Amino acid sequence: MGIAKNDIVLEIKNLNFYYGELQALININLEIKRNTITSIIGPSGCGKSTMLRCINRMNELIDDTRTEGEIFYDGRNIFDSDVDPVKLRRKIGMVFQQPNPFPKNIFDNVAYGPKMYGTRNRQKLREIVEISLKKAALWDEVKDRLLDKSLSLSGGQQQRLCIARTLAVEPDIILMDEPASSLDPIATMRIEQLLREVTDDYTIIIVTNNMQQASRISEYTAFINAKERRSGFLVEYGRTQDLFIKPQMKQTEDYISGRFG
Amino acid sequence: MSNNLTKRGFEFISENAIKTFFLLCAIVSVVTTIGIVLVLLIETTNFFREVSLKEFFLGFRWNPTIKPTSFGVWPLLSGTLYFTFITALIALPVGLLSAVYLSEYSGRKIRSIIKPALEILAGIPTVVYGYFALVYITPLLRNLLPGIKTFNILSASIVVAIMIIPTVASISEDAIRAVPQSFRLAGLSLGITKFQVTASIILPASLSGILSSFILGLSRAIGETMAVTIAGGNLARLVNPLKPAEALLEPMQTMTAAMVEIGLSDITGNSTAYKSLFAVGFTLFLMTLTLNMVSQFIKNRYREKYK
Description:
The structure holds two protein chains of two kinds.
Chain A: E1 8-19, E2 22-33, E3 37-41, H1 48-55, E4 65-73, E5 76-77, H2 85-91, E6 92-95, H3 106-117, H4 122-135, H5 139-142, H6 155-167, E7 173-177, H7 185-198, E8 203-207, H8 211-217, E9 220-227, E10 231-239, H9 240-245, H10 250-256
Parallel strand pairs in A: 3-8, 3-9, 6-7, 7-8
Antiparallel strand pairs in A: 1-2, 1-4, 4-5, 9-10
Helix pairs in contact in A: 3-4, 3-6, 4-6
Chain B: H1 15-50, H2 53-58, E1 62-63, E2 70-71, H3 74-105, H4 108-123, H5 126-144, H6 153-177, H7 181-189, H8 194-205, H9 207-223, H10 226-232, H11 244-248, H12 255-264, H13 272-302
Antiparallel strand pairs in B: 1-2
Helix pairs in contact in B: 1-13, 3-6, 3-9, 4-6, 5-6, 5-10, 6-9, 6-10, 7-8, 9-13, 12-13
């Protein structure tokens, strides 16, 4: 793969995950390079989203689940008993499949995280909101109506608002769970565009069902496949170009050429 | 195979007849309501032919049966309001926090124990609550507050609070649970603690349901009769707003309790005292009606919030 060690921001090692009796992830090993976009592709139900939610420890919120293995974030195992998942999530943000802005106005949505972290200064909050909305390519559309309800925005705008909300807390890594799957092609294009623009500052891991999307935006791609009983395992991981043009594994080739999945 | 289009047997009972039958059932409650309001109105009007509005609404002495009679509603009204206030002070926070615990914090197992327990609490007859207060709560309070009377507001408030906590908790919990899970996940994914997410996102989003549960609980407290009569006593006295703590330990008479007293006394059906029963009832009705309307208003006003 040829990734230099110090470029690795996230190292997933022997990750196993269980929903009750069901093993949803089998021995996943993956190294994520800093300031890149990495796509996770694979058939529905293969555990892509589950893997994503392991990285910010959101899976722990589900009853009756169990995680084994290690994930090193900047050299620190996030499953260590003294790691605070709340603080971890400040560093590893998440954007969900369905846009989920809070039932507050546009300004308060973006300012919410910083406010909760203790920023009270209005001027400072205003700056954060403006910068975040600009990065999320939403500023021009909403700058004159920051006090409008977030739900008055279109689906694509709502999703960009959610991205701005995540950017406002200045995470290192942003996990995206099919962020464009509920959006029309134009809204999708805008989101892809903004993702390419923010990689100077952030590392993005994006789960997608859309292989064109993966090949358009990401530098690296991981292909996860499922054994019987929906247990996901990593088939192949590498540079997106390589994986799409000359996949090493037969399964990958079959999947990207649409022979199953 | 022939087409059989002829009506037969039960088919002669048309859909319209069935519809009318259902309509009649539905009308029963409407007719009853109108009937009650009419009776209240008529008797109240009769009462005010004998007693001035001023005496009733601005009078500070309630003494309907023993001469010289006096029909000032304030002792009853102040008793009711003060009792309701103290009850609310206990029941609303406890009810809301139980709801938050059940919906946000408890696991499925604990919920499956607490929820039915709350429902059983709601099913206990109010007379049982009344004696529970008189026989257990008041003596318990006496250990802490030696000056407490056998019949007192505090004990009645505590027991009625226990009575309405299930109402408040269960309606609030429904409202809180109805907040989309995606808001919780969004909040948590920003590195915000669960408590902060609950306080800053979930509760504001379910505010309308929570307020309705409060108001419903309050109107139950205002209308509660049996427990307050047994535990709170039956002595109409004005609550001194300057010495609220003192009043806690004293007996009182709520509007409902006064109505029971008049109903049980040996006054005749034509006396002013008898008619005062309706005037008090009508006042009570106006209070609960107002509360219900406020509750409806809040529901409609804030419902759009997260749709």
